[in-house]
Amino acid sequence: MAKAWATLGVDLHVEPTGPGVRRGLTDALREAVRSGRLAPGTRLPSSRSLAADLGIARNTVADAYAGLVAEGWLTARQGSGTRVAERTLPQPAPASAAAPRTRDPGRPAYDLIPGSPDLASFPRTEWLKAARRALTRAPHDALGYGDVRGRPELRTALAGYLSRARGVRADADRIVVCSGFSDALTLLGAVLRRRGLRSLAVESYGLDVHWNLLHRSGLRTVPLPFDELGTRTDDLTGVRAMLLTPAHQFPMGVPLHPDRRAAVVDWARRTGGLILEDDYDGEFRYDRQPVGALQGLDPDHVVYLGTASKSLAPGLRLGWLVLPPSLAGEVTALKDGGGWSSGVLDQLTLAEFITSGAYDRHVRAARLRYRRRRDALVSSLATRAPAVRATGIAAGLHAVLQLPPGTEQSVLRAAAWQGLAVHGLSRYRHAAAFTEPLDALVVGYGTPPDHAWSGALEALCGALG
Amino acid sequence: MAKAWATLGVDLHVEPTGPGVRRGLTDALREAVRSGRLAPGTRLPSSRSLAADLGIARNTVADAYAGLVAEGWLTARQGSGTRVAERTLPQPAPASAAAPRTRDPGRPAYDLIPGSPDLASFPRTEWLKAARRALTRAPHDALGYGDVRGRPELRTALAGYLSRARGVRADADRIVVCSGFSDALTLLGAVLRRRGLRSLAVESYGLDVHWNLLHRSGLRTVPLPFDELGTRTDDLTGVRAMLLTPAHQFPMGVPLHPDRRAAVVDWARRTGGLILEDDYDGEFRYDRQPVGALQGLDPDHVVYLGTASKSLAPGLRLGWLVLPPSLAGEVTALKDGGGWSSGVLDQLTLAEFITSGAYDRHVRAARLRYRRRRDALVSSLATRAPAVRATGIAAGLHAVLQLPPGTEQSVLRAAAWQGLAVHGLSRYRHAAAFTEPLDALVVGYGTPPDHAWSGALEALCGALG
Predict the structure, then answer these.
(1) How confident is the model at residue A437 (pLDDT cuts 50, 70, 90)?
(2) Order of strands, edge to edge, in the sheet holding A319-322?
C-alpha cells in the first residue's frame, strides 16, 4: 500500500492474495470514485506500478481497471492513461426523503378491524407439508412461464372444491387464478371498460378500496338501494353489470333475499347483464349450511370471485375467477398481455392442500373457532351492553353492532381510548348511497389471535358500556 | 325412497343417517333441478311427507328446502307450498367452446428458445429448506395485507445482495417487489404515461412482449440505432426515457460500450431523463467479473429492474425495482391502488435463500453449468459448422449464431425438421429499427435440462451443417 496510493491520497484495503483480489480491488476503487475520494479526472497509476505497489499480479489490476471502464467509473484513452471519469458526481440519495412510509405507525393494543382472518391460526405446518409434496411432485416445466390462467393442478382442484362446497358450476378451463380479489376485480374492471361500460352498480355498503379499483378502471360506481332485506333489486334500469356479495353482504351480514336472487338472475338473462359475485367468506356460516353461490343459478351471466384471503391468509395473494364462456377469452387475453400472474409454488401448494383434504379440515376448525368467538361476542354484549343489537351474525368473520342514533363517533373515540382498533359502519357507506345512515360498529371478531381475543372483547364492551 | 319421489319421477340417493343427510339431500335436490329432472314449477312434497318417505327427520328436509330457497333453486309461497323456481334453465355451458387454448400443443423434442434457465436445476431441496425456516420464523402479521412494496425482509436482503453483486446503490425503502419483470415494466409504463410521456426509446433488438406491455400503457416505442459496439446513444434528441439492457444486450449479447454508458448517464443528468435498466441476467458472466449495473453510476436517474426468472425460475414470478427517490412515491401509490402484489411466502423464502448464502451457491453452480454448455456449443460449432460465428457469448444464457445472409428461414426450417425449437434473430428486431437485418439464430443454451442438452446441441449442429 505504498507509493501509488500515497500519490492519490487514498487508502485501499485490498487483500494481496486469494481469488477475491480483483474483486476486492474493483470494489475498493469503485467506492473511492463514488465517494469522491478519487476526484473526476484523476489519473490512476499504471497497472504495472499499482500491481508492484500492492504486490499483486499486473493482470489483476488491468482487469479491475477494465471492469471499471466498462461500468463507466473510469475512462481509458490512448496516450492519457486511465482516469476517473469526468462527470459530476451523483449526489448521495437523500435519506428516504421521498420514500413512502411504512403503514404501521404504532398499533393499538387490540384489533377488531374486519377483513382479516386470525393470522395466528394459519396452518403453517400443514402448509409446509403440502408445499413439500407439491414441489417434489411438480414437473420441471411447472416452474417456467406458464398458462396465465394459473396452474392446471390448482384450477382442477378449485373446480372440484367450488362445485362441492359452494355449488359453483366450474370448469377448470374457465377458472383464472389471480393475485387476490383486488387483482381479479381490476382485471374485470378493465374488461368491462373495454366493452364500453361506463358504470357498475354496487351495493350501498361495501369497501371503498374495491370501488376505487373500479374507478381506476374508468368505471363509475352507482349504489343500489339497501333495506332490511338487503340490497334492493327492483329497479335495475340502465344497469349493465353489478357487483354483489350475495351469500353474506359485506359488511351488513345479510344474505341476499331469495326473491332478489331470483330477480337479479332474471334481469341478467333478460338483458344480457353481468353479475360479479364476491364470495369472500362463503365458507363461514354457523347456524346452517352456507348459502350456495349465485353463480350456480346462471353460470352464463355470473362471474364468481373467490379468495384464499379469508379462509387462509391475505398474504398468499391468491384469488380466483370462474368466468362465463363469453368472458373467458377476453380476460385471459388481457391477463396475457398485462404481466399479471401469481407464483406457481403457492398455486401448486394450494392445489395439494385442497386435494389432500387439508383445506376442508382447516376450514372446519376455523369455522368452529370463529363460531365460538361469535357466541362469546353475542353473550358478552347481552350482559354488558344490552342496548346494542348484533346483526349479520349468522355467517362470516364480522358482526354489525347497531348503536343508538348519533353515537357512532363517540363510541369510536371510546374504543380508541381502550386501545381498540375498530371501524364504524359509516366508512363502509357509499358516498352516493340514498340509504339512511345507520350508527353501528363493524366488528371483525376473526381478526385477533386467540390470546388477544378476550382482551379485545373486554375493550369492546368497555367502549360500549 | 318411496311415494314422494315416485310422484316426482326422480330417484335420489340420500343416505338416511349420519351428519351428511341434510347436505346430501340438498345436493341431490339441487342437481335434480339443475339437470332439469325436476322441472320449473314442479311442486315438491311437503317436508313432512318427504321426511317420512325417506325415513329422516322432518327438520332435515325443511332445512334442505330452506337452503335451496335461499339459493334461488326453489320458491316457497304461502298457500302454494315449495316449488321448483320458475325460470328458464341455464343452458349447459358449451364445452370450452370459447375457452382459451392451453399453450402447449405438442412440443418439439429439443428446446433452445432463449429466456428460460434450466428448470430442472431449480434447487428444490434448498428452496424447501429455506421456506421452512422462513415460514417458521415469520411473525403472524407477515401473512396479512402488507406493505405493497413487498416484505421488508426481502427488500433488505435484496439491497445487500444487489449492492454486493451488481454494484447497485440500493436502499430497502426504494425497492419494490413485483410479480416478475413484466409486472415491473407495466407499473413503470403506467407511471411514465401519467407523467405525460408519449414514447420511450428502446433498443433495436429486444422482446416484443416488453414493447407490447409499453404500448398497452399508451407509450410508443422508438428504437435507438444499433451497431457493432451495441446500442448507439449519440442522438437522443427528444428522448425523455429509455429501456436498456446495459450489462448484456438482449439478444445481441454485447455490453453497452463504456463511452455509451457515460453518454446515457450524462444525457440523463443533463435533461432529467430516465433510464430503465433491465438487468435480466446480470449474474451470468463467464470470462471476467460481471459488468456492474449502470444504476450505480447514477441512482437518481436510473431505475434498476431485476428478476429471479433467470437466476432461479420464471414460475416464482418475482422481480424487483430499485427506484430513484423521485419515483418511489408514485410507483408505490400506483401499486397500492392497483391490486398488484406478490405472495409473501415466496418473498420470505427468497429473503432467507439470499441471506443464508444459498442464492450465491446456486448462482455459482449455475454459472459453472452454463459456462460448460457455452464452451461445448462453441467447440461443436467450430468443428461442425465453421461458417457460423457465435457472438454475445461472454455472458448470459444464450448466444447469437450469425448465419450467411439470406439463410435464417431455411435454417429455422431445418431446425424444425430436427425436432428443435429455436428462434431466428428477426423476431427480436423492432419493426421500426433502421438497422440492417442480420441473419442469425438466438440459441438459449440455458433452456434444456442436462439430459437433453447434448441431443439439443446435436440437433442444432444438424440443422446448421
Answers:
(1) confident
(2) A175-178, A319-322, A302-307, A274-278, A241-244, A199-203, A220-224
Query: Which of A68, A87, A143 has the highest number of chain B CBs within 10 A, making it the mutation to test binding with B?
Result: A143
Contacting residues of B for A299, CB less than 8 Å apart: 90, 93
CATH code at position A365: 3.90.1150.10
Residue A229 burial by Cβ neighbours in a 10 Å radius (0-12, 13-18, 19+): middle
Q: Name the least confident of A312-316, A325-329, A340-344, A445-449.
A: A340-344
- Mean pLDDT, residues A389-411: 94
What whole-number distance in Å separates Cα of residue B193 and Cα of residue B203? 19
Both B369 and B331 in a single domain? no
Q: How far is A333 from chain B (nearest CA, A)?
A: 9
Cβ within 8 Å, pair A90-B298: yes
Domain co-membership, B403 together with B456: yes
Q: Do A173 and B294 touch (CB under 8 A)?
A: no
B-chain residues within 8 Å CB-CB of A258?
Answer: 69-72, 75
Does residue A173 sit in the same domain as residue A32? no
Identify whether residues B60 and B141 lie together within a single domain. Answer: no
User: Quick check: A70 pLDDT over 60?
Assistant: yes
Contact A180 B149 (CB under 8 A): no
CB contact under 8 Å between B119 and A141, yes or no, is: yes
pLDDT of residue A340 exceeding 80: no
Contact A178, A350 (CB under 8 A): no
- Domains: count for chain B: 3
Cα torsion angle, A206, A453, B341, B278, sign: positive
**Who wins on pLDDT, A36 or A423?**
A423
Establish if A237 belongs to a structural domain: yes
Looking at the fold, whether A400 and A331 belong to one and the same domain comes out as no
Residue B321 DSSP SS3: strand
pLDDT score for B54: 80
- Is A97 domain-assigned? no
Which CATH number does the domain housing residue B189 bear? 3.40.640.10
ipTM above 0.90, yes or no: no
Instruction: Determine, yes or no, domain membership for B92.
Output: no
Chain centroid, CA A287 distance in Å: 30
Residues in contact with A19: Cβ distance below 8 Å, sequence separation at least 6, in sequence order: none
Domain boundary, last residue among B294, B326, B357? B357
User: What's the confidence (pLDDT) of residue B237?
Assistant: 93
Cell of A387: 342496548
Tell me the shortest Cα–Cα distance from B100 to chain A, in angstroms.
5
Q: Which domain holds residue A323?
A: 123-357
Q: List the grid coordinates of B301.
A: 436517474
pLDDT at A339 over 80: no
CB pairs under 8 A between A and B: 303
Let me know if residue B3 belongs to a domain: no
Spell out, as residue ranges, where chain B has pLDDT lower than 70.
Answer: 1-19, 87-107, 338-340
Task: Give mean pLDDT, residues A238-253.
Answer: 95
The per-residue DSSP string of B399-464 comes to: EEEE--TT-HHHHHHHHHHTTEE-EEGGGGB-TT--SPP--EEEE-TTSS-HHHHHHHHHHHHHHH
Nearest by CB: B94 against A131, A132, A325: A325
What pLDDT does B95 receive? 37
Instruction: Report the pLDDT value the prediction gives residue A97, as an integer from 0 to 100.
Output: 35
The β-bridge partners of A306 are A320
Does A38 or B306 have the greater pLDDT score? B306
Bin A196: left if φ > 0, else alpha if -120 < ψ < 50, else beta: left
Q: Mind telling me how many Å the CA of B173 is from chain A's nearest CA? A: 6
The residue of A27, A183, A211, A289 whose CB has the most chain B CBs within 10 angstroms, and thus the best one to mutate to test that interface, is A289
Considering only CB atoms, which chain A residues are within 8 Å of B100?
A: 149, 173, 328-329, 332-333
Option in B34, B66, B98 nearest A325 (CB): B98
